[in-house]
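Input record, target 12 of the design panel.
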């Protein structure tokens, strides 16, 4: 089990990460801006919206803090979801979008740290990512 503060600490341990606010929630960004001029966010706190909850119907949505993390592409998204069925998932709102959701109460530190690094590598400027890329 990992807390949101643990996730924040892990994200901020990555090079040149800044914590920002996104839609009133905590998020973590790499240097640079998006085409729309916003920060290049690779992970963010993602509470369920009313519409998200309604889509669950009679099923109960995952509980606790939820983190969204970018992935390189949709193929990596499928691989991450297949490799981590316990705490990683997606919702219809994220269909066609390269990110996964993480139920922090169900994931271990190692899996979260790896996912945050992958998200960081997917969004970091190429020269920065190349200097830090493991192995």
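The sequence produced for target 12 reads:
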């Amino acid at each position: 089990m990992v807390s949101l503060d643990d996730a924040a600490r892990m994200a901020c341990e990555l090079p040149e990460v800044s914590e920002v606010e996104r839609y009133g929630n905590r998020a973590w960004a790499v240097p640079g801006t998006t085409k729309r001029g916003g920060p290049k966010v690779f992970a963010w706190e993602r509470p369920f919206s009313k519409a998200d909850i309604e889509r669950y119907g009679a099923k109960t949505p995952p509980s606790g803090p939820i983190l969204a993390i970018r992935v390189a592409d949709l193929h990596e998204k499928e691989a991450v979801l297949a490799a981590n069925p316990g705490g990683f998932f997606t919702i219809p709102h994220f269909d066609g979008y390269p990110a996964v959701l993480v139920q922090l109460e169900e994931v271990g530190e190692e899996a979260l740290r790896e996912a945050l690094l992958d998200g960081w590598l997917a969004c970091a400027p190429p020269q920065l990512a190349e200097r830090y890329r493991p192995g």
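DSSP finds five helices and six strands in the chain.
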